[in-house]
Design goal:
Elements: H1 5-8, E1 12-16, H2 25-32, E2 39-43, H3 55-62, E3 68-71, H4 75-87, E4 92-95, H5 105-121, E5 124-126, E6 132-135, E7 140-143, E8 153-160, H6 163-175, E9 180-185, H7 194-201, E10 209-214, H8 220-231, E11 236-240, H9 253-257, H10 260-270, E12 274-276, H11 279-289, E13 302-306, H12 309-321, H13 331-338, E14 351-352, H14 360-368, E15 375-381, H15 389-395, E16 402-407, H16 410-422, E17 427-428, H17 431-453, H18 474-483, E18 491-494, H19 497-507, E19 511-516, E20 529-533, H20 536-545, E21 551-556, E22 563-571, E23 575-582, H21 586-590, E24 593-597, H22 602-607, H23 629-644, E25 648-658, E26 664-666, E27 669-673
Parallel strand pairs: 1-2, 1-3, 3-4, 4-5, 8-9, 8-10, 10-11, 11-12, 13-14, 13-15, 15-16, 16-17
Antiparallel strand pairs: 6-7, 6-9, 18-21, 19-20, 19-21, 22-23, 22-25, 23-24, 25-26, 25-27
Helix pairs in contact: 4-5, 7-8, 8-10, 11-17, 12-17, 13-14, 19-20
């Protein structure tokens, strides 16, 4: 046995705190293990008979050591008991009890004692503070939750931060007819992490899809690396909680945007995971992906055949809102479909059949053969008098995978869902669920295509050496960006009024005048930025309004244009993160931001603009200058290179203005070295 096999595929199990007294945790655990085909050793020093006083005594009686020890005893005595079990030959432990780090200082001390056992013995520990794990295919229910021993096996694995969420998803999968391959609740993740479980699953040939539930991650890069490795084999669907928690981030705009929830979602998407908003979507998505997986393609096309127009429109609307392509059918397809349907029906996509009819299977086949269609979704109510829907769907010979969405009496729908699932056709029972299934297939295919296209790293910043010490002012920050190929305004550093007047003559009007002080990051808040200065008198008036400062920065004023914000910051979990958003306050107010982990592949840099809800503003909408996407990508790659430098804590460009020629210019920049503790932000001038 290797890796986590002693934990998830044990040949023998010992239960610490086993009992037969009603209401005891050890009693419930022992009952759940009744169907386990291996040896179960019941450990309880206070009970005679079938119970052993220690793991060592159980080993002597059975002639073999347990692979897995399940601890159902209080936190205060867990570490010593688990250490004794390791000494007796145990190789893994599941610690179910609470009262560890989640409960305060005393519990944290218990958790640290257990951590020392892991360090000293090499024992792998799941938990503490978890309700356990489930492996129905091995008849192993290592959980104290009633009913888990009856869960059916399947092809979906659940890897959840919470034991409760693990069980909730396991029961929901059973209700959806998908079944469970492995269900794991991490609890406090003292030792075994989500990345460990994902790496373990990578070797499981019977696995069809993974449902990943994320609350926190001690090592974000390990998690995303594990997801990236796994999606080459099986799809991963991720639900990240914490939308309302902005966390403890720096006061800069980029820091405020890159919340833990946003960063985690962006990082998992970048690794190839499909993202969902809630647990119902999670179940629907993995139910579909465990049975069907499309080839990698940037934007798969979806055809929709609906026997009822209203529900079909709901599905089509949800797909288009999510950015999934529902392309018009080719004229040849429309002609072939038209020969099968009444003339009053809509036949270009969605295809409305009017009502279920015996021609349904033929319509599905013709639609699925369209050259721009990669998956076909079918909606129909169960109307046996019109058509045997399950027979029509299973008897059709479509050129693409099918997703079925079925309505009708609950018992009949449940049977249809089961029958179609056994035939390899994912089946939803509401238009919303059907749209989720189709979207998951499309996003998984697009995500793998993006990974293939983004394999090449960006080359911006190679050979540029930084030498930073102490606070960095705006001029120095812009010099660093210029060295990385980022366009910055022509400027002069001025020590006094006379130098400022000389700069106005050299640069030509109009100019911007700013205070140059590395200790002042929000210059506009102190009146430290004056714009549109054209004459010497206007310059004198502007200088009179500005606070005293060590030096002045006079810059040639850039033409008007749309504005972006771009930056890189060091996330405590995921490391350097590159951000792009609409400039000024819009990004923060609207939450319109695109995030990627650094180092940033060239393909990912080029794609970040497309994530923004305001992207059309930068594509030339309303007469604005369209941004040169290649130049924008090089700015993002430059920021990525800065993020990779251990001397840099954060860099932000705000605003990054789009010029009439499509190039972008950094009008303001803040660069914070790692040793600077005042994590402020740039202003919007």
């Amino acid at each position: 046995m290797t890796g986590l096999d002693p934990l998830f595929a044990p040949r023998s199990v010992a239960v610490l705190g086993a009992s037969n007294a009603p209401g005891k945790l050890g009693t419930a655990m022992t009952a759940s293990l009744a169907g386990f085909p291996g040896t179960v050793m019941k450990i309880n020093a206070g009970r005679p008979g079938e119970f052993h006083p220690s793991v060592a005594a159980a080993v002597a009686a059975h002639g073999t050591a347990p692979d897995l020890v399940i601890s159902c005893i209080p936190a205060a005595v867990t570490a010593d008991a688990v250490r004794e079990a390791a000494a007796a030959g145990a190789r893994a432990a599941l610690v179910c009890a609470g009262g560890f780090a989640e409960s305060g200082p005393e519990g944290a001390a218990h958790q640290e004692a257990l951590r020392e056992v892991v360090r000293d013995t090499g024992l792998r520990v799941l938990g503490p503070n978890t309700s356990g794990f489930l492996a129905p295919h091995a008849s192993l229910a290592a959980s104290f939750v009633p009913g888990v021993a009856d869960l059916p096996p399947g092809r979906v694995a659940v890897v959840a931060a919470s034991g409760g969420v693990n069980h909730a998803l396991a029961f929901a999968l059973a209700d959806a007819g998908a079944g469970l391959r492995l269900g794991v609740g991490l609890g406090n993740s003292l030792d075994v992490t989500q990345a460990d479980v994902l790496d373990h699953l990578a070797g499981d040939d019977a696995l069809g899809a993974v449902a990943l539930h994320v609350e926190t991650a001690a090592d974000g890069r390990r998690l995303t690396d594990a997801v990236r490795r796994l999606v080459d084999r099986v799809p991963v669907v991720a639900l990240v909680v914490g939308r309302s928690d902005v966390g403890d981030f720096a006061r800069s705009h980029t820091g405020a945007l890159a919340t833990s929830w946003r960063v985690a979602r962006a990082a998992l998407r970048q690794a190839g995971a499909v993202l969902v908003e809630d647990e119902r979507e999670l179940v629907d998505a993995v139910c579909a992906l465990s049975r069907v997986r499309l080839p990698a393609r940037p934007s798969p096309g979806v055809a929709l055949v609906t026997a009822q127009a209203g529900p079909g429109l709901l599905i089509a609307d949800a797909l288009r809102t999510a950015g999934v392509r529902v392309p018009p059918l080719a004229e040849r397809t429309v002609k072939e479909v038209g020969a099968l349907l009444p003339g009053l029906t809509y036949q270009r996509n969605p295809v409305d059949t009017g009502r279920p009819s015996p021609a349904l299977a033929h319509v599905i086949e013709r639609v699925s053969e369209d050259p721009d269609v990669d998956v076909t979704a079918v909606y129909a109510l169960l109307e046996p008098a019109a058509v045997d829907l399950p027979a029509a769907l299973t008897g059709a010979r479509p050129a693409t995978p099918l997703i079925a969405v079925v309505g009708g009496p609950p018992d009949e729908v449940r049977r249809t869902r089961r029958d179609l699932g056994e035939a390899g056709i994912p089946c939803a029972t509401t238009p919303a669920a059907g749209a989720t299934m189709v979207r998951a297939l499309a996003e998984d295919a697009a995500g793998r295509s993006r990974l293939e296209d983004s394999a090449a790293p960006g080359d911006v910043g190679a050979g540029v050496a930084l030498s930073l010490s102490g606070p960095v002012d705006e001029h120095t920050a812009k010099n660093v960006l210029s060295a990385l190929g980022v366009r910055t305004p022509e400027r002069r550093v001025c020590a006094d009024r006379d130098a400022a007047h000389a700069a106005l003559d050299e640069l030509g009007a109009p100019v911007v005048v700013k205070i140059l002080d590395a200790g002042v990051l929000h210059k506009t808040e102190v009146g430290g930025v004056q714009v549109g200065i054209r004459t010497p008198d206007e310059l004198d008036a502007a200088l009179a309004r500005m606070p005293a400062c060590p030096a002045l920065l006079v810059e040639r004023m850039a033409p008007a244009g749309p504005e972006l914000i771009a930056g890189v910051r060091r996330d405590p979990v995921f490391g350097p993160v590159v951000a792009l958003g609409a400039g000024g306050t819009a990004a923060e107010v609207l939450g319109d931001v695109s995030l990627r982990l650094a180092p940033l592949p060239a393909g990912e840099a080029a794609a970040m603009l497309d994530d923004l809800a305001t992207r059309d503003l930068f594509r030339g909408a309303r007469g604005a200058a369209p941004v040169d996407r290649e130049r924008l990508a090089r700015v993002l790659l430059a920021l990525s290179a800065l993020g990779a430098d251990p001397a840099v804590a954060e860099c932000e460009i705000n605003p990054l203005r789009v010029l009439p020629d499509g190039d972008v210019v950094a009008l303001d920049a803040v660069l914070l070295p790692r040793d600077v503790r005042n994590q402020g932000g740039s202003d919007d001038a």
